[in-house]
Amino acid sequence: MSAEPKTQQKALLFDMTRCSGCRDCMGACMEKQGFPGDPKLVTDLSATAYTAIFEKEDYSYRNMCRHCVDPTCVSVCPVAALEKTELGPVIYDASKCMGCRYCMQACPFNVPRYEWDNPIPSVQKCNMCYDRIQEGEMPACAAICPQEATVFGDRDEMIAEAHARIEEDPDEYHPHVYGEHEIGGTSVLFLTPFPLEELGFDPSLGDEPIPVHTWRVLSKIPGIAIGAGASMLAFWWITGRRDEVAEFEAKQKAQKHGRAKDNGHERN
């Protein structure tokens, strides 16, 4: 019996030399997520902007979640609110989140944002339109891009496409596909006309996945790691229980208020 074919991880390839700065990708993303606002007024990532366009000299480039092959945010989340899917996107389940925001501290690209002004806040970041990918469609940003500055496909194919573009026009590109190897690889790849260090990308991250370093440290202090994990899980349970109690008390007050109102009508 032959083995089932391995699921191909998907990826986005962003080509800075082709981006016109039209911000159609931002508008499509905001519309897909139901976010308000004008994409032309967006100046950075936020809880209601999963991607942002920036200018550098005569070029434009995008910032967004890199959907790392071995994501640090997933490795540090104590309650598995973040998940690296077989298809490539790193997705987030707000119902599991305990609000520790370790993912925000751990992300080497400073991507996740928090809903500070929401009474029931959650972490927000790009999910690469995971629901669309599951249906065999492209992410909204790639589907709408008029210049093929953002393209989508199997990760291996996107890497091959990136190298082909460099080979076809070597004077146009810096000869490096950013995200092919950095921190173990990412599912968002970049082609640029100059080194990405000039855009603020950290050149010191290296090619080894960051979670590998994490586990090397934790393996030397298992007692501390287990104790910390137990404490965080306890905190998560207490927080969840507190929310349940608050919800129950609110329902009880509403019921009492309703009964008192009904009794008042009866007396009148």
What does this structure look like?
The chain folds into 2 domains: 10-208, Alpha-Beta Plaits (2-Layer Sandwich); 221-267. The radius of gyration is 23 Å and the shape is globular. Strand 6 and strand 7 (123-124) form a beta hairpin. The chain is built from 8 helices and 9 strands. It has 268 residues and is an alpha+beta fold. The chain has helices at 24-33, 72-76, 102-106, 130-134, 140-144, 155-168, 210-220, 222-267, and strands spanning 10-15, 52-56, 59-63, 82-84, 90-92, 113-114, 123-124, 150-154, 188-191. The chain starts with 9 loop residues before the first strand and ends with a helix. The longest helix has 46 residues, at 222-267.
Helix-strand blueprint:
Blueprint: E1 10-15, H1 24-33, E2 52-56, E3 59-63, H2 72-76, E4 82-84, E5 90-92, H3 102-106, E6 113-114, E7 123-124, H4 130-134, H5 140-144, E8 150-154, H6 155-168, E9 188-191, H7 210-220, H8 222-267
Parallel strand pairs: 1-9
Antiparallel strand pairs: 1-8, 2-3, 4-5, 6-7
The biggest beta sheet is recorded as:
3 strands, mixed
What's the number of helices? 8
Query: Which structural class matches the secondary elements?
Result: alpha+beta
Q: Supply the CATH class of the largest domain.
A: Alpha Beta
Low-confidence stretches: 217-221
| Strand-residue proportion | 5-15%
Q: Helix fraction?
A: 25-40%
> What's the N-to-C terminus distance?
80 Å
Count of all domains: 2
Assign an overall shape.
Answer: globular
Which sequence of SSEs, written as H and E, runs from N to C? EHEEHEEHEEHHEHEHH
